[in-house]
Specification:
Radius of gyration: 32 Å
Order of helices and strands: HEEEEEEEEE
Number of strands: 9
Distance between the termini: 136 Å
Number of helices: 1
Largest sheet: 5 strands, antiparallel
Structural class: alpha+beta
Number of domains: 1
Length: 223
Amino acid sequence: MKTSMHKQRGLSLIELMVGMIVAMVVIAGAFAAYMGMTISSRDSIRADRLNQDMQTVMDLMVADLRRAGYWNSEATGAPATNPFSTIDTATAGCILYSYDADGSGAISDNERFGFKRAGNAIWSRTSGTSLTDCSNGTWGVLTDDVVVNVSTLTFAAENRCVNGRTKVENADCAALTTASGDNLSERRSIRITLRANPVGDTASTKVLAAVTQVRNDRRIVIP
């Protein structure tokens, strides 16, 4: 009785190489997918951080600027003597203002406030001796320039001055025709524009804009 013997064969070198190539392609595809998900997740986190930081700072500026010019005083006579009436936007990227935070009726250093862009960050002022010098006073940083690059911060005054007697309006109180005893009321608004991007990613630049109306009108009595 004859027994048939079959010679056992293994994989050839070519088959092994083909298998290795297929495995490498699969691994490369999986790695590319993983990297794509990682980058997408990183970009999403950075975008969320940018949105959160910008909105938080904008909300803070809008809310605090509404308080500008507040004066806790019952003084009669010429309202133009309000020591808190100045709002200065003469320096690009900076605004200085004050309000009667402690209700004393008199202005003090820690009632002179401001916001400005310095470097690539936004700063707020907690005290100062000047309402025209943006380098004056104590400033604290609000944004992290390692994470967020603030490229633009602007403050534009949008004022309307009304003569209570004639009812005529103008953007500039000095341009109104007045007579002795006239009462002028200056309604003030500030347009804020903020532009920023994640550090190293200018393609993800975001722009926020808001208009805040100062609640305390500036009053002037013509002598």
